[in-house]
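Morning, I've got a small favour to ask if you have a moment. I owe you a coffee for this, so here goes:
>
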Amino acid sequence: MTETWRIELLVPAAAVPMVEAALDGLTDALLCFEIEAPGPDQGLWRVEGLCERPPDRARLTAALALAARAANIAEPAVSVERMAPRDWLTETMAGFPPLDIGRFHVRGSHVSDPPPPGRHALVVDAATAFGSGEHATTRGCLMALDDLARRPRWPRRVLDMGCGTAVLALAAAAHWRCPVLAVDNDAEAVRVARHNTRRNGLSARVRCLRSDGFRDARVTAGGSYDLILANILARPLTAMSAPAAAVLAPGGRIVLSGLLATQEARVVNAYRRQGLALERRYPIAEWMTLVMRRRGRA
């Protein structure tokens, strides 16, 4: 049992990515829920940050002020409260039931029941890196992977850019049994990703690397990728369109997620300028996952 402090605020869906980024480093765990019950807050999202020590109020206020400015919203009201001692990490894990998304079965380590037959079972805990399968963006990516898995003998090489927990890298490696490079710019995410590759017995296929996008030469070494997975945010997705397209093999696909439906046109246009064509869309609530294809023969 540990002492826990909770930060809570309500924001529009479009502001969630900016608020998540603002709270990164200020909390030990971050949870986001859409408010669906009727009432004045319906349609807003509740963002809760949990930490084991009192948050730095000055840093918190400054970070959220910048996030509100970036999202073009008024500064949200924030509550900070000390909670009764409790094993909040165990409770949080228990709140994530197993997920069946196509041929992929994603579960936390707290689940003891045997996985269903015929699916790739992936053990990924909701902890200090993004990507447990619960969020609409991760779900959209796994749906895209399930559809792409219908193609025989493809791909030969995969890149998971902004891998978080590496759940997408694990899914690709489990199904195609091919080399996968999982990249993130956050050291903690890379640590979690490496832990998950070992836990799932996929260390021989998934290599985890810390890099700020494509800046590390090891990301672009070794030739092109047949499949790139990028579940990040609309702005970095747009910024990396040229380097991503440069390492995507002819006929290859890139799965883009982490963007709101209102940001779709901006992201699609950025990749169309690089010669890619939109192949499929996966809308889930306010979020959008896109599959784009580079022209040429796979």
Remarks:
- The CA atoms of residues 282 and 289 lie 5 Å apart.
- Residues 128-132 have pLDDT under 50 and may be disordered.
